[in-house]
Write a structure and sequence with these properties.
With about 270 residues, this protein is of the alpha/beta class. The protein contains nine helices and eight strands. Helix 5 links the parallel strand 4 and strand 5. Helix 2 packs across helix 9 and helix 7 packs across helix 8.
Length: about 270
């Protein structure tokens, strides 16, 4: 492979597995990693919803299906991906949902659901793909967290707690495997231009009678953001982490907060 080809396709011969890849941030990550030369496996809950994403990919790809809260189904899907394209070089844990509720109306089921999606799904996927990474002495694990996992926010206690747990896992696992060639990092976007925000705006409009623009402005103001983060910005941050050279920092949290220049927190 020539230097020019390597520069244009830095992830050539790499297998990337992306959870929650049927829309939004996951779909954008799939497109950017595919454009960088990776062989991409989309792990989705509904194969039909992944069809539109598949048509945008420029290289080899596959689709595997699992509910990430079902440990056995998730691990089976990870093994199916490895059977199709070989060991996973890049794992992006993106799947998950956000639920808002006052703390006193956040029952045990809600906390369990958020932890299942944002912590235990990561654990179960990593437990499958990590051993081959360690055997080969290389690998990238990127967890899509949230600024809510760094600072917290009202009415999302369960979600925020689960994202804090994800970041704790990221930092601890990074230290454990750094000497064996595997990097573990996270990206922490603020409110991002996805269906989750669109739905939140719609709920505010329905509850308060505000316009959609006013509802969005209130969300951004509460979060201290000047604008929504774009899915392509999140995907670009993931791509940078996935193309980092051996020995690059690990255990990092790349913050995308909708400000003019963003920031990086360790």
């Amino acid at each position: 492979m020539t230097a020019a080809v390597m520069a244009a396709h830095p992830l050539a011969d790499r297998h990337a597995l992306i959870t929650g890849a049927a829309r939004g941030i996951g779909a954008a990550i799939a497109r950017q990693l595919s454009a960088a030369g990776a062989c991409v496996t989309l792990l989705v809950r509904d194969a039909a919803r992944a069809e539109a994403v598949v048509r945008t990919l420029s290289g080899p790809h596959a689709v595997v299906v699992a509910d990430i809260t079902d440990a056995s189904a998730l691990q089976r899907a990870c093994r199916e991906a490895m059977a199709a394209f070989g060991p996973v070089d890049i794992l992006v844990n993106n799947a998950g949902s956000a639920v808002s509720a006052p703390f006193l109306k956040s029952d045990a089921a809600l906390f369990s659901r958020m932890l299942a999606e944002h912590l235990m799904a990561v654990v179960h996927a990593v437990q499958v793909v990590l051993p081959p990474m360690l055997e080969r002495g290389r690998g990238q694990i990127v967890n899509v967290a949230s600024v809510a996992g760094l600072a917290g926010a009202p009415y999302i206690t369960a979600y925020s707690a689960a994202k804090h747990a994800m970041l704790g896992l990221t930092r601890s696992l990074a230290q454990e495997v750094a000497s064996r060639g595997v990097a573990v990092n996270a990206v922490c976007p603020g409110y991002t231009d996805t269906a989750l925000v669109t739905d939140a705006v719609a709920r505010i409009v329905a509850r308060t009678g505000r316009t959609a623009a006013e509802a969005e402005a209130s969300i951004l103001a509460e979060a201290g953001q000047s604008r929504l983060v774009t899915v392509d910005e999140v995907a670009a941050a993931v791509l940078v982490l996935c193309t980092a050279p051996p020995g690059a920092p690990t255990g990092q949290c790349v913050v995308l907060d909708g400000s003019a220049d963003g920031s990086v927190a360790s």
